[in-house]
Amino acid sequence: MSILKVNTIQDKGGNAIISSDGAGTVTVNNDALKATPSFEAYNNANQTVSDNTHTKLQFNTEVYDTDGCYDNSTNYRFTPTVAGKYFVYASGQAETEASQLQFTQISIYKNGSQYAQRNIDFRSNNGLQVSANISAIVDMNGSSDYVEIYGKIFKGGGSTIRFKADSTSEKSMQFGAYRIIGA
């Protein structure tokens, strides 16, 4: 059995790629080996929406944002600064105040156009609340491409409709993305 003991692995130019503190903590210094930029955010207040209208969902509270690429106060969009393929995910919990919920849609928009969508349709059996989830792999150019999340609710009656506020324990309304390493 052979054991190789080092605390730093360097590239050809002498730059540290991987280092260890000697206690088992490893630091990866090569950006190509990191799943960043990445972020996750949630909405901390109910967002009332208009009936049967695509509405940008406002994920206003960051859980983390590794490179400051998510705007949680104005545009509610992720604009990564590194080109690559990104795993983008979101969830939104649609609800009405009465059992009038008929249709819910959650969509990923890229550069202002719908990229992917998920629908929940129960017009034959109205509901009160539903969680819609979506994920997709999105190519991003690392400079101007951005993604946002939109939601749509169709109701059958006169009650208020909204996407329910999140709490850190429920994760009922979240939006996040991370770069896929090696893709």
Structure explained in plain terms:
A hairpin with a 5-residue loop joins β2 (16-20) and β3 (26-28). This protein has no helices and 14 strands. The chain folds into 2 domains: 1-33, no CATH class; 35-179, Jelly Rolls. It is 0% helix and 48% strand. The model has no long low-confidence stretch (mean pLDDT 89). Strands 4, 5, 7, 8, 11, 13 and 14 form a 7-stranded antiparallel sheet that branches. A 4-stranded antiparallel sheet has the order 6-12-9-10, with no helix packed on it. Strands 1-2-3 form a 3-stranded antiparallel sheet, with no helix packed on it.
Note the main attributes of this structure.
183 residues, mainly beta, Jelly Rolls, seven-stranded antiparallel sheet, four-stranded antiparallel sheet, 14 strands, elongated
Summed up, what is this model?
The chain has 183 residues and is mainly beta.
Write the layout of secondary structure elements.
Elements: E1 8-10, E2 16-20, E3 26-28, E4 38-42, E5 47-48, E6 55-56, E7 61-65, E8 84-96, E9 101-110, E10 113-121, E11 129-140, E12 147-155, E13 161-163, E14 174-179
Antiparallel strand pairs: 1-2, 2-3, 4-7, 4-14, 5-13, 6-12, 8-11, 8-13, 8-14, 9-10, 9-12
